[in-house]
Amino acid sequence: MIPLSWYLILAALLFGIGLFGVLARKNVIAILLGIELMLNAVNINLLAFWRYLTPGDVTAQIFTVMVFVVAAAEVAVGLALVISVWRKRDTAYADELDMLKW
Amino acid sequence: MEPIQIVFLIGAALVLGSAVMVVTRRNLIHAALFLILTLSGVAMIFVLLEAFYWAVIQVVVYIGAIAILIIMAIMVTRNVTGDTVKPFNNMAVWAAMLSVVASGSLIWALSYWPAFDQTAPVADTGEYVIRLLGLELFSAEGYLIPTMIASVLLLAALIAAIKSAFPISQEEE
Amino acid sequence: MQFLEDPVLWIAEWLREVLLGWGASELVTNMTLNFLGAFVVGAMIMVIFILLTWIERKAAARFQDRIGPNRVGPFGLIQPIADAVKMLTKEDTRPKGADVVGYVLAPIVSVFSVLMTWAVVPFTQKWIGADLSVGVMYVAAAGSFGIVAVLLAGWSSNNKYSLIGAFRGVAQLISYEVPLFLSLLVPVFLARSMGVNDIITSQTAVLFAIPWLNIPIRGFFVLAAPLSVVIYFISSLAEVGRAPFDLIEAESELVAGYHVEYSGMKFGLFQAAEFLHSFTFAALMALMFFGGWQGPWVGTNNLTGWLLGGFYFMLKTFFFYMMVMWSRLTFPRIRIDQMMNLNWKFMVPVSLVLLMGMPLIDYGLRGQELWLKYLVLFLFNLIVGLIAFAWAARADRRVKTHTRVRFEGRPVAVMPQAPAAAEDETAG
Asked: How many domains does chain C have?
C-alpha cells in the first residue's frame, strides 16, 4: 500500500517546482505554466485527502471541481491578455511590461 | 517493495521530471509539451488514487483544452528572438531557494501530522462516488450556489477572453 | 469450459494455467494476460485498417464509376499489402530545422489516441477491454490526444503550410468536439450511466412487440433521439477531418495540411489514424445509438452471444463506415466560415436544446410506459429538428440575397509590417 505521505511529498515538490516557474521565468506564458503546475499539486493533495481521510464524502471532490473551473477560467483570460499585450507592445516578457513604472 | 509502489514511483518521477523541464526549458513549445507529459503523469496519479473520473477529466480539461490553448498562444506570440533570450530573470537563484524552502517546510510541517503515514481505508470509489458528486453539486442542500457561481465565473471568463483577445478595430483607435 | 461457449475466455484461462504452471506469480500472469489482450485488440484494429484501405479504394472507385484495384490478387484484395510495401520502402525524409522529437512523436500519438478508444469498446457482451464506469468520458479523453498530435505535427515540421493546417485543424477539432460530446451525453442520460456496456444493456428494453409475428422492438436510443444521431454523425465527420470537412488538408489551399512534410510510414500512420478514427466513430455510433452487439437472436446462449453479437456489431459499424465514405465521396468541401457557422450557430444550440429538453420530458413522464416516453422524446426531437432546419434555411436565404462575394483584386504578397502600436510609439 502507498502511504498518504508519498502523495503529499509529491504534491509539495510539484508545488515548489511550479512556484519556481512563477517566480523565475520571464515569459508571461511560462509563468502561466508554473501556475498550472501549482494547481495540479493542489488537486493531487485534495484527491489524496479524499481517498485517505474521507472516502465516503465528496467535499474534497467539490473543491477539485472548483480548482478545475478556476484553472480553465484563468488560462482563458490570461492567454487572452497575453495575446492582447502582444498586439499592443510586441512582447510577452513580464519585465518589459513596465508602462506603469516611472 | 510492492508493485503498486513501483508504479507510483514511476508516475511521480514522470511528474516531477517533466515539471522540472517545464520550468527550465528555454523553448516554450518544448516546455508546453513537457507540461502535457506532467499532466498525463498527474492523471496516472489520480488513477492510483482510484479517482478514475478525475483522471479522465484531467485529460479532457487540461490536455484537451488548457494545454492546447497554451501551445496556440505560444505559437501566436512567438518572438523571433524568443528562443535565445535567457529564460530566467535576475532573481532566479533566490526563487529557487524560496521554492526549496517552501516545499521543504511544507513537508516538514506535514510530517508532524499524525495522519501523515496513514494508509488508504477500504472504500467504494466506483460509480457511487460520481453519483454522489453529481447530487451534491446540484442539490440546494449541497453545493448548488458554489456551482452556480463557478458557472457564472466561466461565462464571465469566456466573455472577457473574447473581448480582450479581439483585435481592436481601426475606428476605435 | 467449452471452447465454443467463449473462445477468448477459454484461451485466456488456458494461458493462465500454462503461465502459472511455469511458476509465474499471480501478478506477472495477470499483467502478461492484460498486455496480451491489449496487444490483440490493437493488432486487430490495425488489421481492420488494412481492410479499410481496400474498402475505401473500392468504394471510391464505384462511386466514381471506376472499377478500382483489381490487379493484385482476387478483387484487388492484396492491394493494401502492396500499398504497405510502397509506404515502407519510400524514403523517410525529414525537413531541415524540424523539431526531431516532436516530428517523430506526432504520428505515434495520432494512432495512439485512436487505439486508446478501443479499450472501452465492447465487441460482444463479454469481450470488452475495460468496462470503465466513465467510459464515455474516456472516449472524450482519448480524442483530446488527437488534437495534440495535429498541433505537434504542424509545428514540428517547420513549414508554414503545415502550421496553418494545424491551426485550422485545432480550431475545427476543438469546435466540433462540443456538439459531438453534447450529443453523446444524450445516451448517457437515457441510460443513467457512463459505462459503455451499461448503455448497451439499457437498450434491450422492449418497447412493444409486433402483434402477429411476436418480434420485439427494442428501445434503441436512435428511436428516442434521432436528432442527436444526426448531430453526432455530422460532428464526427468533422472530427475525423474528412470531406465535406477536410479543410484541415485542403489540397488546393494548404498542399496537404499538417502532414505535408511527412513521407513514408510516418504518413502511413497519419492515414491509419484518419481511417481508424472514422471507423471508431462509426463503432461508437453503433454502440451508443443502435444497440451495439444487439440484434435478433442474440440470446443468453453463449455461442450465439459472441458469434451473432460480434457479427451484428461489425455489421452496424461497417454500415456506418460506409455512410461516412458515402458523404465523403458525395459532398464538396465547405468553406471555413461555413464550417464555423454550422457548428456554433446551428449544431451547438440544437444539441444544447436537446440536452436540456429531453431530461425535462423524461422527468415529466416518470413512471409512464416506456413506449410513451420514447414516442414523446421522438416527437420532441422531430419538432426541434424541424424548427432548427426551417430557421437555418431562412438564415441561409437571407445570407444569399444580401451578401455577395466580391472580387477585390488579385492578392499580392506584401512585406510584413510591424504592428501599428509600435509605430505609433516611435512616431509619438
From this structure: 2
State yes or no: pLDDT of C427 exceeds 50: no
Q: Does C362 touch chain B (CB under 8 A)?
A: no
pTM for the model stands at 0.85
Q: What pLDDT does residue B173 have?
A: 47
Q: Are C75 and C245 in contact (CB under 8 A)?
A: no
Is C425 a residue whose pLDDT tops 60? no
Question: CATH 1.20.120.1200: which residues of chain B?
Answer: 1-78
The pLDDT, as a whole number, for residue B31 is: 87
Does residue C45 sit in the same domain as residue C156?
A: no
CA distance C339 to chain B (A): 19
Of C42, C74, C89, the residue that ends a domain is C89
Residue B52's closest chain A neighbor by CA? A47
Q: CB distance B143–A62 less than 8 Å?
A: yes
CA-based nearest residue to A19, from A33, A9, A4, A6:
A33
pLDDT at B77 over 60: yes
CA distance C309 to A70: 45
- Give the closest residue to C279 by CA, choosing from C46, C40, C43, C8: C46
Q: Which fold has domain A4-90?
A: Helix Hairpins (1.10.287)
Domain that holds residue C159: 93-398
**Mean pLDDT within C166-184:** 87
**Do C46 and C178 belong to one domain?**
no
Given C89, C111, C146, the domain boundary residue is C89
Nearest residue to C151 (alpha-carbon basis) of A92, B43, B36 = B36
Dist CA C129 CA C139 (whole Å): 13
Q: Residue C190 has which C-alpha cell?
A: 437515457
- Chain C neighbors of A89, CB-CB under 8 A: 421-422
Q: How many CB atoms lie within 10 A of CB C178?
A: 16
- Judge if C85 and C137 occupy the same domain: no
Span B1-78 CATH architecture: Up-down Bundle (1.20)
